[in-house]
């Protein structure tokens, strides 16, 4: 069967490796972050994350990522199917991804298949990365159709008509789109002269047969199904993307509603107290408390002595001036009060 697709691009990997690589993302939003990072690295100013219902597909909907970044030409689109091959390494700017793995690991964690449509200058390129295709065709290695068209003429860039026909037949059979007109409509959805649209479908399901992403509970959010937690960043994609970057410079829309991104440096103005106990600190604190108790005992003894002295002067037949004794008693009382407050503070 593989001989039939001999002229098509091969990713030089097996399905088993593809599945194993996807398991590196235990956290579902971590897989989504890989695709968000790619849009940011492409210089996108806007990223739309949305779903499109399709009952014919596993999970009942498609998960879509649409950005207005620089897009890819046919050569760059071909590079993305290989592991460890990335044009970002040649860039002098500080980009997040550079290993050529994020798109594959992230998308395959979310679903079995994805179709990528990208536009740059006068070319439009489509990439079908489908486990379903390889499984049903009995292929040992991953084969990837990558047809391209001219933006101005909408004619195929590939001169080999037979190869183009084979690629299109695979796309029509194993993607959500069954005609070239439908594919062109997806390219038209890319706003501007460049950009990329990624559509993930045949989504991963939980043991109960439901998709991992819950898009029904909140119309403007995507939730991790069945994950109760006090921190919304762990189960709400909207909350997660709001704090994803230290310096957010890309607008993110989830289900057509803008995410109110938060600048992390300004999120730390309310410090939290984290209890931390060690034997050393506990011993020191206990010694401080014992010392404070002794000081309080001495202060209370001084108060008693001052009171006795004042009483003695008041009962004396000599009628000595007792104003100094009153002052001494007042000082002793204030000292005892301060010492007691210190002890209470150390005991808290």
How would you summarize this macromolecular structure in one to three sentences?
This protein has two domains: about 1-265, Heat Shock Protein 90 (2-Layer Sandwich); about 280-345. It is rod-shaped, with a radius of gyration of 35 Å. It is about 40% helix and about 20% strand.
Could you characterize what this model shows?
The chain is of the alpha+beta class and 348 residues long. It has two domains: 2-267, Heat Shock Protein 90 (2-Layer Sandwich), CATH 3.30.565; 279-347. The chain is 39% helix and 19% strand. It has helices at residues 15-22, 28-41, 74-79, 102-110, 131-136, 161-174, 180-188, 237-242, 279-315, 323-347; strands at residues 9-14, 46-53, 61-67, 111-120, 123-130, 141-144, 148-150, 195-203, 213-214, 223-224, 251-254, 257-258. It has an eight-stranded mixed sheet with strand order 7-5-4-8-3-2-11-12. It starts with 8 loop residues before the first strand and ends with a helix.
Q: Would you count the extended β strands for me? A: 12
Extract low-pLDDT stretches. Answer: none
Helix content: 25-40%
What is the tally of helical segments? 10
Domains counted in the coordinates: how many? 2
Overall radius of gyration: 35 Å
Order of helices and strands: EHHEEHHEEHEEHHEEEHEEHH
Q: What is the percentage of strand-forming residues?
A: 15-25%
* CATH secondary-structure class of the largest domain: Alpha Beta
Distance between the termini: 75 Å
Strand line-up in the sheet with most strands = 7-5-4-8-3-2-11-12
Structural class of the helices, strands and pairings?
A: alpha+beta
InterPro entries: HATPase_C_sf
GO molecular function, one term: metal ion binding
Keywords: Coiled coil, Metal-binding, Nucleus
Organism: Alligator mississippiensis (American alligator)
């Amino acid at each position: 069967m593989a001989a039939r697709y001999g002229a098509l691009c091969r990713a030089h990997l097996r399905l088993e490796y593809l599945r194993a690589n996807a398991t590196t993302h235990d956290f579902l939003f971590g897989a989504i972050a890989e695709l968000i990072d790619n849009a940011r690295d492409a210089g996108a100013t806007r990223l739309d994350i949305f779903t499109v219902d399709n009952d014919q597909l596993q999970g009942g909907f498609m998960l879509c990522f649409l950005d207005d970044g620089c897009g890819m030409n046919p050569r760059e689109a071909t590079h993305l199917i290989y592991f460890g091959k990335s044009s970002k390494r040649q860039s002098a700017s500080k980009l997040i991804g550079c290993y050529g793995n994020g798109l594959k690991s992230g998308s395959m964690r979310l679903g079995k298949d994805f179709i990528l449509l990208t536009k740059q200058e006068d070319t439009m390129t489509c990439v079908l990365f489908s486990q379903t295709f390889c499984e049903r065709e009995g292929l040992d290695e991953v084969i990837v159709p990558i047809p391209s068209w001219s933006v101005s003429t909408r004619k195929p860039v590939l001169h080999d008509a037979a190869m183009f026909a084979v690629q299109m037949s695979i796309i029509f059979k194993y993607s959500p789109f069954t005609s070239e007109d439908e594919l062109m409509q997806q390219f038209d959805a890319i706003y501007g002269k460049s950009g990329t649209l990624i559509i993930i479908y045949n989504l991963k399901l939980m043991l109960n047969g439901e998709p991992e992403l819950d898009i029904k509970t909140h119309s403007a959010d995507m939730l991790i199904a069945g994950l109760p937690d006090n921190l919304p960043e762990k189960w709400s994609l909207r909350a997660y993307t709001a704090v994803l970057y230290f310096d957010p410079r890309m607008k993110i829309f989830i289900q057509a509603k803008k995410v109110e991104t938060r600048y992390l440096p300004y999120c730390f103005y309310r410090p939290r107290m984290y209890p931390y106990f060690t034997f050393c600190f506990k011993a020191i604190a206990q010694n401080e408390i014992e010392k404070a108790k002794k000081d309080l005992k001495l202060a209370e003894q001084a108060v008693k002595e001052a009171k006795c002295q004042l009483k003695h002067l008041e009962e004396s037949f000599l009628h000595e001036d007792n104003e100094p004794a009153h002052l001494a008693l007042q000082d002793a009382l204030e000292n005892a009060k301060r010492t007691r407050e210190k002890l209470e503070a150390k005991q808290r």
